[in-house]
């Protein structure tokens, strides 16, 4: 029994071992792409403002009440705060990993520059990996649709 309408049914096409391998490769690439997209979403959402100069709590910048924001936006906001601060404003509480350190403005700016560079590199790497997966999936779709036509569905949820 087939789920296809009678006009779309074709004669049974034999599925060769190579076809099974292509279908399996498509599935692996699709799962990898989903994982990469999830990682990108995690990178772009929900970072707390944990790098604040001392005394910012009195100006309303309390980390526990901060709304989630994109990591890139967070780094940009922090960079703006550092530009507005002068070197006499005292040490800054800067989060590195799971620990907090008091850093002078100069060191905090240097750390921020490194963190922003790392963030941009990670996003770029994830985007490159996603493009590779999409390219491979597109090539496999062409081959599999050429052989199986409407008897195979290779559309993903985002398409």
From TrEMBL:
Determine if Coiled coil is one of this entry's keywords: yes
The Gene Ontology biological process terms listed for this entry are:
protein folding
Q: Which keywords has UniProt assigned to this entry?
A: Chaperone, Coiled coil
What InterPro entries does the record point to?
A: PFD_beta-like (IPR002777), PFDN4 (IPR016661)
Alphabetically, the GO molecular function entries are: unfolded protein binding
Q: Which residues form a coiled coil?
A: 109-143
Give start-end of the signal peptide. Answer: none
Q: Which family does it belong to?
A: Belongs to the prefoldin subunit beta family.
Mind telling me what this protein is named? Prefoldin subunit 4
The organism of origin for this protein: Kockovaella imperatae
């Amino acid at each position: 029994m087939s789920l296809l309408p009678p006009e779309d049914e074709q004669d049974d096409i034999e599925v060769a071992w190579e076809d099974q391998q292509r279908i399996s490769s498509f599935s692996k690439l699709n799962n990898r792409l989903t994982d990469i997209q999830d990682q990108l979403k995690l990178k772009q959402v929900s970072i707390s403002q944990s790098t604040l100069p001392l005394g910012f709590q009195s100006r309303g910048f309390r980390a526990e009440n901060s709304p989630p924001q994109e990591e890139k936006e967070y780094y940009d906001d922090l960079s703006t705060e550092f530009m507005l601060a002068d070197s006499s404003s005292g040490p800054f509480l800067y989060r590195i990993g799971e620990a907090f350190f008091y850093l002078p403005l100069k060191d905090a700016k240097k750390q921020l520059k490194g963190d922003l560079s790392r963030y941009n590199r990670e996003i770029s790497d994830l985007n490159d990996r996603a493009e590779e997966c999409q390219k491979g999936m597109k090539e496999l779709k062409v081959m599999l649709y050429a052989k199986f036509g409407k008897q195979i569905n290779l559309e993903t949820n985002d398409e």
